[in-house]
Write a sequence for this structure.
């Protein structure tokens, strides 16, 4: 459930609800990163070189085992030549 929808119904989200939302967004980012990387034909090693991020870190982001900062999200979006918000969209958006 999106945070704004939750807040309009329940006013104050519970910590577990916020964690669920964070997990959803992190998974969405990971899926979109992998999809856009495949569209551009960029390997994780090439992405690491373009962004200055470690290949293992990028692998962990794609598997949702690492949190990612907004700064690193921006580096990835720039390397893929897409707006950052595109990497946060759900498939149906």
């Amino acid at each position: 459930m999106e945070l704004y929808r939750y807040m309009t119904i329940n006013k104050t989200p519970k910590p577990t609800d916020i964690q669920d939302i964070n997990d959803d967004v992190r998974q969405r980012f990971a899926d979109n990163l992998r999809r856009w990387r495949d569209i551009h034909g960029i390997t994780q090693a090439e992405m690491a070189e373009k962004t200055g991020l470690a290949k293992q870190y990028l692998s962990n982001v794609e598997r949702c085992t690492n949190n990612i900062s907004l700064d690193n999200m921006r580096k990835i979006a720039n390397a893929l030549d897409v707006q950052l918000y595109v990497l946060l969209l759900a498939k149906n958006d």
In short: The chain has a mean pLDDT of 84.
